[in-house]
């Protein structure tokens, strides 16, 4: 009995997102006629990826016991850089935007890992700085229309088995993230650093390198999100992304990523982001204010925390009894 | 059961051959930290297949020496010979590659990884590969390593699900997988239950039989005497006893070597007893334990003895109202207070010195004065306003009485030594105006001899003022010297009571579960 | 690591300014030389007026940081307050409406305090949750667009009025700093905040009612934020669901630049003041120099990072020290 409960408390966190998603789908499915349609499903599956990419990136930062509040600004910067690069050198230069994200993330990683600055302060600096840079290169915040918007629109809105090509690309990138986390040495080292930072150096891990990589990944995924934004909008958007950093953290946390580090699954984060997207879409379709989605997300975050509290309270005396005997 | 007597016998009966060549030798090693000299020409010789204990008071240089051995720090002077050849380690990884494996008190394992991944942690940390599968040991290998330390668990279990004792064994198994020639254990039994400590020592014995040298640091003299083959004693950074066979050194010589002077560890002049002022009824720290009743009189010092994991500290904490999950009633005089509410307990004059000052007692970034006054803030504040002069006037005399070194009340607490930090926590309670009951847990753990004396004096003085004292400790000498009577705790229950005059052996026997106390 | 009262063992402590004072001084001199219009009286009043609003909210954030927590919900509480204020204006008049608005912010603080103190949830999580809930509620109630309030002198007095010749926001900021200083340096509750922030377990075992102390901290932070909310609402004279989304970040930056560590147990009112002044001076100088907004952002980023780095390099001892429960 205690074994099962103990398992529940450790992996129970990964049940929150699927349960919430199921409840949301059922609720909206029943209440809103336009919801349970193939078209709408396709809609959700097309739109959820910006948030998903940001949240997956955030997961890497959270795993190391940190977080990154600059991802929204970095996404905007990447979006802008991508558009400028595409206009200058042609569409194949779009991925340079993601590179910009990687560099920003790397800077965050250096500040946190090498200079020892707290994540909130370092990423706050990047939050302000990246936005400033985006404004700078666009002469005060003007959008950067893509000169070859036709191809971009095709990528963004054509249907490839019901879902646009960029959605598939985003999915591929997310799958790659899962591989990195679970099957690569880097992924294991990121988990080790978050799980026991003191022991990490003992087994030969250089913490600053892992921080650099983790935040670099976070920035890279923010960069991918920026690419996605540009392709969908047909322009680079330097003022986009405000408020998305907190939504990304919310999606990651609902998806089971622990704020204390060491725990996280890419699949969970994807489901968490999907849940938030379903909320927005459902509320939109139903005519209820879409702002209530924010309320629902906030309630789920706090609710999952309370659930963990209840499990802790319930389990701890049982755990103590087991030890004492 | 941690059967010291049996272990002692077993060790004495083992064949005592010539020790052979030292697998590790340290000569003339010195290390300076700013103005403090941590090590001054220290020596150490480790022989294969033998358990070697390093003893010394706090500040003697034990942990510095160990850090040099495992490569965490470099000495300023001196040589280290590994199997006769000079060796210098610039990092712990280098030492580990050379076969020296450290097991610290705070384990270097990763609770969120599986056991198998933990066993492969060094490979994961050092490999140049990008695929984890290449660095992680196979399930069969993992099982083999776990078997060698007596653990039969599924290697894919998440490490966080294991108990501390099991985790320690996993760490040792990991060390074995690194073909370890020297195993370094730092205070290994501090957090173990008796069953787990037993298992640990059995594994240690096995390793020695296979030729590994085991170096261990311990404060516990009885444990050292029972399990160590050789001893080194450090004092003030120098080696005072070097690699002597344990059976050639008796207890008094040991203590003398550690302290440099004879210390009166004899019985003190204890106060007379008054009325019963503290009553605990039906106290149980977990559901299956038998309930116990304790009554303590004014001026009485009741010792609570128990081995690590016996529940003695938990019972002590419960008596102070510091343990929410305990069941029973607590009363000072005729005023009852709940088992989990320290605020109520303090208002009734129940002081509490927790066993782990770092986690539960100190405020490291605050000043000594703020640390000492933490429990009595209402006494020097009026209508919600703090009166500094009053705080100073109330607490500094206590700091003087306890000989705080240096006597600087506005120094950050983290700048004081362990013994002086403990004095801050103690004075916090002594300063309670209405102090009637004082519960102290492990009051002199990690505390130097001078501070220990001062704290003991203070406890007795409080009792003499009519305070009822409950003293839970794993230090038998402390209990025997200070208690009017001693309660023996095993398995979370009070099994019996004995008088200090029955002597050390009787107490040990009672803790071991032999003979009626 | 080791700080002591300068000199004598007597009770009178020598005042030791925080490290950020030096940075503020250097910044002031630098800007005064670089930008001719900077050190004029009119401009300095402007700097302080702008700084005031941030200062009041930063006082609230400082309390939470001392407790070892973090407050994100400021970002939406002020918005929610402004919407609620404007909506109740017709029914309750100006004073009543402001009271309701302030009450909303304090209520959010109380909710945060309860979740954090009673259920021991991490403050990051809780205030993130209430931030999102508050933002959602504000937008839903307002229908997504700002609601204009009827122009009235009474309504805009908080932002534009003067009291004894001093602009009201500045007076309120001075008052807030004084209250914060008083709470931290002279009250029992303030002392308990330091103890709970330095080691919550030890505080509980020492007999302190940690639940109440933490709860009170978030409520007091809410009160500071409430004043900010009212001033901001008064300034824009409308209910804005997106009033100050970056307020939590700005207040955290101000406290960090001022030298308040995020780990808890330390912090002084003066550090808040210097941190806010540094940010305000820098913003002002950039505007005076006619730099585009982009440069403003980049400079703020540089100042945040640089200031924190400088204080790290100067050594922890200089920054923390014995004044934690302390004299200013």
List keywords for this structure.
heterotrimer, A: 325 residues, mainly alpha, ABC transporter involved in vitamin B12 uptake, BtuC, two-stranded antiparallel ribbon, 15 helices, 75% helix, globular, B: 517 residues, alpha/beta, Rossmann fold, 2 domains, six-stranded mixed sheet, 20 helices, 22 strands
**Which structural class best describes the helix and strand composition of chain C?**
mainly alpha
Helix count of chain C equals 13
Could you describe the largest sheet of chain B, including whether it forms a barrel? 6 strands, mixed
Quick one: biggest sheet of chain C?
Answer: 2 strands, antiparallel
CATH class of chain C: Mainly Alpha
Number of structurally distinct domains of chain B: 2
What is the third-level CATH name, the topology of chain C? ABC transporter involved in vitamin B12 uptake, BtuC
* Mass-distribution shape of chain B: globular
Q: Tell me what portion of residues of chain C adopts beta-strand conformation.
A: under 5%
Please give the oligomerization state of what you see.
Answer: heterotrimer
Summarize the model shown.
Chain A has 15 helices and two strands.
Describe the structure.
The complex is a heterotrimer of chains A (325), B (517) and C (328). In chain A, strands 1-2 form a two-stranded antiparallel sheet. Chain A has one domain (2-320): Orthogonal Bundle (ABC transporter involved in vitamin B12 uptake, BtuC), CATH 1.10.3470. Chain A has helices at residues 2-11, 16-31, 38-47, 49-63, 71-89, 96-113, 119-137, 149-157, 165-183, 185-195, 197-202, 207-233, 244-254, 266-286, 292-324; strands spanning 144-145, 235-236. In chain A, 57% of the residues are buried. The model of chain A has no long low-confidence stretch (mean pLDDT 88). Chain A has 325 residues and is mainly α. Chain A is globular and about 60 Å long. The longest helix of chain A has 33 residues, at 292-324. In chain A, 75% of the residues lie in helices and 1% in strands. Chain B has two domains: 1-91 and 213-262, P-loop containing nucleotide triphosphate hydrolases (Rossmann fold); 276-512, 3-Layer(aba) Sandwich (Rossmann fold), CATH 3.40.50. Helix content of chain B is 34%, strand content 24%. Chain B is built from 20 helices and 22 strands. In chain B, helix 1 (4-13) packs parallel to helix 10 (221-227) and helix 17 (418-430) packs parallel to helix 18. The longest helix of chain B is centred in the middle third of the chain and has 16 residues, at 194-209. Chain B starts with a helix and ends in a 5-residue tail after the last helix. By secondary structure, chain C is mainly α. Chain C has one domain: ABC transporter involved in vitamin B12 uptake, BtuC (Orthogonal Bundle). Helices cover 71% and strands 2% of the residues of chain C. Chain C has a two-stranded antiparallel ribbon with strand order 1-4. A two-stranded antiparallel ribbon of chain C has the order 2-3. In chain C, helix 2 runs parallel beside helix 6. Chain C is globular and about 55 Å long. Mean pLDDT of chain C is 86; it is low at 1-12 and 317-328. Chains in contact: A-B, A-C, B-C. Chains A and C meet through helix 7, helix 13 and helix 15 of A and helix 4, helix 10 and helix 12 of C.
């Amino acid at each position: 009995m205690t074994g099962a409960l103990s398992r529940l408390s450790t992996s129970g966190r990964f049940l929150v997102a699927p349960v919430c998603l199921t409840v949301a789908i059922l609720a909206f499915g029943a209440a809103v006629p336009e919801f349970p349609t193939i078209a709408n499903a396709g809609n959700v599956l097309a739109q959820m990826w910006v948030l998903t990419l940001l949240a997956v990136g955030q997961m890497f930062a959270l795993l190391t016991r940190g977080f990154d509040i600059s991802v929204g600004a970095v996404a905007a910067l990447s979006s802008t850089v991508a558009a400028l690069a595409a206009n200058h050198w042609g569409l194949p230069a779009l991925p340079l935007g993601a590179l910009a994200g990687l560099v920003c993330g790397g800077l965050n990683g250096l500040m946190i890992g090498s200079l020892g600055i707290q994540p909130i302060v370092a990423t706050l600096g990047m939050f302000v700085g990246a936005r400033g840079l985006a404004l700078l290169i666009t002469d005060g915040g003007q959008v950067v229309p893509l000169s070859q918007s036709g191809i971009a629109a095709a990528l963004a809105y054509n249907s490839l088995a019901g879902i646009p090509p960029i959605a598939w690309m985003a999915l591929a990138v997310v799958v790659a993230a899962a591989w990195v986390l679970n099957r690569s040495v880097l992924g294991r080292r990121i988990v080790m650093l978050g799980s026991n930072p003191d022991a990490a150096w003992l087994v030969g891990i250089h913490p600053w390198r892992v921080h650099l990589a983790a935040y670099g990944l976070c920035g890279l995924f923010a960069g991918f999100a920026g690419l996605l934004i540009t392709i969908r909008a047909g322009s680079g958007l330097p003022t986009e992304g405000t408020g998305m950093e907190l939504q990304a953290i919310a999606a990651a946390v609902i998806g089971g990523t622990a704020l204390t580090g060491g725990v996280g699954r890419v699949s969970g984060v994807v489901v968490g982001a999907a849940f938030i997207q379903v909320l927005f879409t459902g509320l939109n379709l139903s005519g209820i204010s879409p702002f209530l989605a924010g309320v629902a997300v906030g309630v789920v975050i706090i609710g999952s925390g309370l659930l963990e509290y209840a499990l802790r309270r319930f389990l701890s005396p049982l755990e103590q009894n087991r030890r004492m005997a | 059961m941690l059967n010291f007597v049996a272990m002692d016998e077993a060790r004495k009966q083992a064949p005592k051959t010539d020790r052979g060549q030292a697998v590790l030798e340290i000569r003339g090693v010195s290390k300076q930290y700013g103005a403090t000299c941590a090590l001054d020409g220290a020596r150490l010789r480790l022989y294969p297949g033998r358990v070697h204990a390093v003893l010394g008071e706090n500040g003697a240089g034990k942990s510095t020496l160990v850090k040099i051995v495992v490569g965490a720090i470099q000495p300023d002077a001196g040589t280290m010979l590994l199997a006769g050849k000079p060796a210098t380690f610039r990092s712990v990884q280098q030492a580990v590659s050379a076969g020296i494996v450290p097991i610290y008190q705070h384990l270097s394992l990763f609770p969120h990884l599986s056991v198998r991944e933990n066993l492969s942690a060094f490979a994961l940390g050092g490999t140049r590969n990008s695929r984890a599968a290449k660095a992680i040991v196979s399930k069969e290998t993992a099982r083999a390593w776990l078997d060698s330390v007596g653990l039969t668990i599924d290697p894919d279990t998440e490490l966080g699900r294991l108990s501390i004792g099991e985790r320690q064994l996993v760490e040792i198994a990991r060390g074995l997988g690194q073909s370890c020639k020297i195993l370094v254990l730092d205070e290994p039994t501090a957090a173990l239950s008796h069953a787990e400590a037993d298992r640990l020592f059995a594994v240690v014995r096995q390793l020695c039989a296979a030729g590994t040298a085991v170096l261990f640091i311990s404060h516990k003299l009885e444990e050292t005497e029972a399990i160590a083959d050789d001893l080194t004693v450090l004092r003030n950074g120098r080696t005072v006893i070097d690699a002597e066979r344990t059976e050639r050194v008796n207890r008094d010589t040991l203590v003398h070597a550690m302290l440099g002077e004879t210390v009166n560890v004899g019985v003190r002049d204890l106060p007379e007893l008054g009325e019963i002022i503290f009553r605990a009824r039906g106290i149980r720290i977990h559901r299956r334990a038998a309930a116990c009743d304790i009554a303590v009189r004014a001026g009485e010092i009741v010792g609570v003895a128990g081995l690590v994991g016996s529940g003695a500290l938990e019972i002590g904490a419960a008596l102070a109202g510091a343990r929410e999950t305990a069941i029973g009633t607590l009363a000072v005089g005729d005023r009852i207070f709940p088992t989990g509410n320290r605020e109520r307990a303090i208002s009734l004059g129940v002081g509490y010195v927790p066993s782990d000052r770092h986690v539960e007692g100190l405020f490291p970034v605050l000043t000594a004065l703020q640390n000492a006054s933490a429990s009595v803030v209402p006494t020097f504040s009026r209508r919600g306003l703090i009166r500094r002069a009053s705080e100073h006037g109330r607490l500094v005399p206590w700091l003087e009485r306890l000989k705080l070194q240096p006597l600087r009340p506005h120094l950050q607490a983290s700048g004081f030594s362990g013994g002086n930090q403990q004095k801050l926590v103690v004075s916090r309670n002594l300063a309670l105006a209405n102090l009637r009951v004082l519960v102290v847990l492990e009051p002199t753990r990690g505390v130097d001899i001078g501070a220990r004396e001062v704290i003991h004096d203070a406890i007795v003085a409080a009792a003499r003022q009519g305070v009822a004292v409950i003293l839970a400790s794993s230090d038998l000498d402390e209990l025997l010297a200070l208690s009017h009577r001693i309660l023996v705790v095993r398995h979370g229950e009070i099994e019996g009571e004995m008088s200090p005059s029955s002597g050390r052996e009787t107490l040990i026997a009672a803790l071991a579960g032999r003979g009626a106390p | 690591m080791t700080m002591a009262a300068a000199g004598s063992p007597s009770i009178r402590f020598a005042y030791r300014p925080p490290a950020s004072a030096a940075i503020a001084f250097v910044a002031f001199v630098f800007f005064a030389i670089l930008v001719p219009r900077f050190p004029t009286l009119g401009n300095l009043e402007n700097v302080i007026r702008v700084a005031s609003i941030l200062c009041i909210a930063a006082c609230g954030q400082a309390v939470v940081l001392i407790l070892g927590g973090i407050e994100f919900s400021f970002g939406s509480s002020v918005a929610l307050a402004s919407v609620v204020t404007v909506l109740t204006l017709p029914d309750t008049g100006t004073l009543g409406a402001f009271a309701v608005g302030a009450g909303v912010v304090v209520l959010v603080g109380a909710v945060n305090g309860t979740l954090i103190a009673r259920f021991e949830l991490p403050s990051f999580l809780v205030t993130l949750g209430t931030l999102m809930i508050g933002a959602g509620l504000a937008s839903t109630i307002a229908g997504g667009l700002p609601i204009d309030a009827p122009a009235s002198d009474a309504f805009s007095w908080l932002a534009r009025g003067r009291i004894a010749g001093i602009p009201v926001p500045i007076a309120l900021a001075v008052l807030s700093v004084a209250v914060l200083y008083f709470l931290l340096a002279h009250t029992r509750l303030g002392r308990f905040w330091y103890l709970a922030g330095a080691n919550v377990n030890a505080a509980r075992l020492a007999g302190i009612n940690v639940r109440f102390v933490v709860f009170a901290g978030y409520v007091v932070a809410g009160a500071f934020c409430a004043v900010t909310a009212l001033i901001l609402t008064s300034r824009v004279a409308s209910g804005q669901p997106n009033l100050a989304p970056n307020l939590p970040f700005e207040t955290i930056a101000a406290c960090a630049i001022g030298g308040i560590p995020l780990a808890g147990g330390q912090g002084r009112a003066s550090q808040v003041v210097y941190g806010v002044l540094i940010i305000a001076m820098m913003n002002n100088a950039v505007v005076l120099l006619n730099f585009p907004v982009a440069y403003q952002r980049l400079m703020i980023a540089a100042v945040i990072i640089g200031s924190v780095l400088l204080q790290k390099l100067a050594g922890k001892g200089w920054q923390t020290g014995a004044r934690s429960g302390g004299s200013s």
